[in-house]
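Hi U.,

Before I forget, here's the chain from the pilot set. I'm dumping it here mostly so it's searchable later in email.
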Amino acid sequence: MKILAFSDVGKWEGYEELVDRIKPDVIALAGDLTSEGFASFWSEAVEQIPEFQREKKHLMKKFGVNKYGVCTRQNLEEWVHAQDSLEDKYQDTKEFLENRKRIHVDKFYKFLRYSGKKYKVLVVKGDHDDDFKDDYIPERINKIAGCKEISGKIEKIKNLCFIGLSFNETHYVRTLESIVENFKNRVDVVITHCEQGKVPVVSCLNPKIMIRGHFGSGKYLVNGIPSVFTMGVKYTVVNIEAKGPPRILQYAVDRIDGKIKILEKGSCAPWFSKVSEFERYKWLQPYPEI
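Structure:
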């Protein structure tokens, strides 16, 4: 079975073309789909407000910022603070909310409608999907042909059993341990949006593979369980075969030329940490090369 997986979507452009090129059996969306901390809509939605543009031009003149965004005076820190404060002001407006829905949320549902006509789409809720009321609606997702919201649920496709574990199902240890007790050795694929400390607990379900959004990129063994972390990459392709470990390829946007390339090495170490993830987490090992 071929699974196309991604999560923590910063921009929805290009994904419809992607699914037609990959032609997966299943599309696994591992959370943070209607909102994400690094999503482009945070700046794009305010930039499209005329009042914001007028105030920004006034600030640029005040701080000596040219058309290329370069501050020509010795007050760069003050300019950055003033610009951030201006964006914060307009992110509370009705215009921002309307622009944000059009730029990001509407495109999420458009992607589901497009992809669900051809492929099985399984969706799991992330923590940022609660950022704005009435964006992420499980009932709305389930009404789209080919799409299933599976947070806290089981879904069987062909000969594989999938379980969806959202941020909510995994956040509280007692809830997560109960799920593990009930479904251990009964599922093949876990699609989850769990915190770092909950990853080893989720692995106790003993699946063939764990697909995890929320934080980190790369392919690993978590307590010996094949796992792939999908935050910070464009997409991941997982091939589950009758024998042997899953084949995993990840693709990320190159920071230099902007092209999508194979991710050679991911990371799930805490930001700015000088200690590698393998030194920090005893339950984590590199994924064996196939």
